[in-house]
Write a structure and sequence with these properties.
Elements (H helix, E strand, L loop, with lengths): L6 E14 L2 H13 L7 E4 L2 H7 L7 H4 L7 E3 L3 H29 L4 H27 L1 H4 L3 H7 L1 E6 L3 H13 L3 E13 L23
Antiparallel strand pairs: 1-4, 1-5, 2-3, 2-4
Helix pairs in contact: 1-8, 4-5
Length: 216
């Protein structure tokens, strides 16, 4: 968890927020928001239950109140189409790389062109299928670990950043239409930390340890 010294910036923003007790209903509402002109970057949802508990020092806070707490753990919304796209790209890249490596190897072994094509294509397909499994487990780790029902019971949060009264009214109407509870508007200071940066956990050299670079 990031401490006060890890805060990079604070952003004052106006949001429409709501609580859902169904992942499907939340996804449907988010897709409706996107099709109505809201930017994907302006939609956040609550993080996993274990991350939420760590961020709040294991305090029991109702979801309706949690939505107004700046320390609540949130993450960008990722829909089914995003997950599918990432799986397709990952499988394609892995499959192509494996197929090319196998093709070069088989050519060096002086196999016939039809055999090279057949074996390398099959190898690429198998590699792509194998690569998708761990990726899917990572992206659906809450469901795999059995945390999804507990998260739905406690309440799944959604935050929608808005810049005009018209957008505020539209976002509220969409959330309510899909079964959102405790739907309301608030202004909140969002702290941007190193954990919010893309690839924040990437360590190019494992010998450097986990301390941020440049910190004594």
């Amino acid at each position: 968890m990031s401490g006060p010294s890890d805060v990079l910036d604070r952003l004052r923003t106006r949001e429409v927020t709501g609580v859902f007790h169904s992942r499907r209903a939340l996804d449907t509402a988010a897709q409706d928001l996107l099709s109505s002109g809201f930017d994907r970057a302006d939609i956040d949802v609550s993080a996993s239950p274990d991350e939420q508990q760590r961020r709040l020092n294991y305090q029991a806070i109702p979801a309706a109140d949690l939505a107004d707490i700046p320390a609540a753990a949130r993450r960008p919304y990722v829909g089914g189409d995003d997950r599918l796209g990432l799986e397709v790209v990952t499988a394609s890249v892995v499959g192509c790389v494996v197929a090319l490596v196998m093709a070069f190897y088989l050519v060096s072994r002086e196999m016939t062109p039809p055999s090279v094509i057949l074996v390398s294509v099959l190898g690429g397909i198998v590699a792509a299928a194998v690569a998708i499994r761990p990726l899917r487990r990572v992206m659906q780790r809450d469901r795999v670990r059995g945390l999804e029902p507990a998260a739905e019971w406690d309440g799944l949060l959604i935050w929608v950043r808005v810049q005009s009264p018209e957008k505020e009214a539209l976002a509220q109407e969409i959330l309510l239409r899909h079964g959102g509870e405790a739907v309301h508007i608030h202004e909140i200071d969002i702290a941007k930390t190193a954990d919010d940066l893309p690839l924040h956990s990437l360590r190019p050299d494992p010998w450097l340890g986990n301390e941020p670079l440049g910190r004594p």
